[in-house]
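Researcher: Batch entry, complex prediction.
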Amino acid sequence: MSHSDALVQELEAKAKVLVNHCLDQFCTFSQGHVGGTMSVLEIITALYFHHLKFDPKNPDWPERDRVVMSKAHCCEAIYAALVELGMYPEETLGTYYCYGSPFQGHADRWCTPGIDFSGGSLGQGLSFAAGLALSEKLKMKYNPPSRQDTFLPRYIVRYNPTYRTYCILGDGELQEGQVWEAAMFAAKFKLDNLIAIVDYNKWSLDGPTNDVMPIEPLVDKWKAFGWSVYEINGHEFHDILVTLDMVANQYGDNRPKVIIAHTVKGRGISHWEALHMHLGRGEEMMKGVREGRAKYGDME
Amino acid sequence: MATWNKHVAIGPPAGVGKGIGKAMKAAFQKDPKALAILEDMQFPEIEWFVDNMFDRMIECGIAEQNAACVAAALASEGFTPVINNFLFAGMGRAYNQIRQSILVDRFNVKFIAREGVWGEVGVSHATVEGWGSLRVLPNLMMINPADAVEAEKAATAMMQYIGPAVIKQEMSPDPLTIFTADYPFDLGKAYSLRDGKDATIIATGYMVTEAVKAVDLLEEDGLDVGVLNVSTLKPIDEEAIVAAAKRTGAIVTAENSSEINGLGDAVACVLCENLPTPLVKVGVEDEFGQSGLITEEKDELMEHFALSAKDVADAVKKCILKREALR
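Model: Structure tokens for the complex:
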């Protein structure tokens, strides 16, 4: 199962547009979580522009796939996607961090249609995502679709959840104990409609994630908690798309899934990559923004 | 004997937990979307729930932080999750989860929280500071019923109310039955048990029982003292508090929890802003709880924390002296 080169090229072009949208946001106050935003960008692009069941005209659609951005400080990437999907005008990018803006410093469900989870306090997203996944199961249990609603035999329905829940986790965030409470919970309730994606960019605010507090062996940990584990290069669209499809097709195996995406902090901007920049501020960050503008071109 | 307003009939003690359990049973039968979120701490009327609502019980184990966020997500999908635990565990342990995942988005999650100074469980479980710590959180409705009758009505009202709310199940001896069956409970409204002329005791939860006893003690001294039951700490009924202060000019607050940021402080703020009035607080001073025994003759903890009817009566006398000194 592979995807056409045309699709990959199209997504690569989209990713460049999103980079530009992110640069616009970073410029508002010369500040932004540049490292994690750049490392998760391809994953967000693949989700929003190909994989997700998501209708920008109807963000509250009950059957939409849920996206829980647990590392909500990197919400710039999602804001960029929402703008590119036409949910917000491009000028909104310039109001990032501003009073009254729908683009708050950390993702906020209450004031930003299209956002499913108010994050920022790390470690809570996987629990929330597990709750959404459990809701889907409970609704199916209490209100199964009737035969009139579908021409498919009942057993096929099992392979099509009403919606899937995607949870994007940071690697440093895995140091939170609550993540592993949620991991146990998801395994107990057999949440095979739940897909966690770890943006494993190897760096936290204080230094290398595995020096700050080692999270390895990561694959073994998730396996021991009863999850199916997949490892990918989080910057390769072929890799991302194939794995997302494969994971979706595993629905019905009673196991929650985790995709460990190996990424590079500050990806694509050599200045940020070299500094492993987490929260960029002032001139150090603007240097990267100028590099990005030159590299990805002003798309306007 | 003191006379009481229309919906008050002082009766034998009854457990608040029974009232909450009865209300939960009815609410779960009525609302098919109500879910019991368990944290290995059972649930009111657990046997009935196991027999009748087993598929609506979500057992999350001893992982309160995860349970709070799971409840938030279930509420976001239209369910009405109810979490039952000690306050320190269910809400104190998951304080930030409740703030960030539930209250920010006003998700319809309900809490039953046990707290108070009484019991043999000791300092870890007999917390007194949790209730005050919740008062600073926006969007959270806080209810502390005075007796089993009010507990049932309050829990029912809480389940009908749309938004995050907590009902406190106090760790205390069983309170006296205060209210009649037709007592009209209203969320956010205080209820005057008796109006009085000389002073008003503003009490909440179990301390309403001690206030009622204190009224009789004070009557022997020739004092006519009112009792105002403030069961909803947040939002607080400013109008009723100011009316009481206008009537008597001396206010004593009584609560089975820390004096800091509790009912006493809330009433003090209301009065300072609207009608400065002499006030004396009865509650736990700045300290932790501990184990203690209750026997027929003696309640060690009530004595230690100075929360008995006699302490309330002394506070009333002190407050009246304060008022006279100011005149």
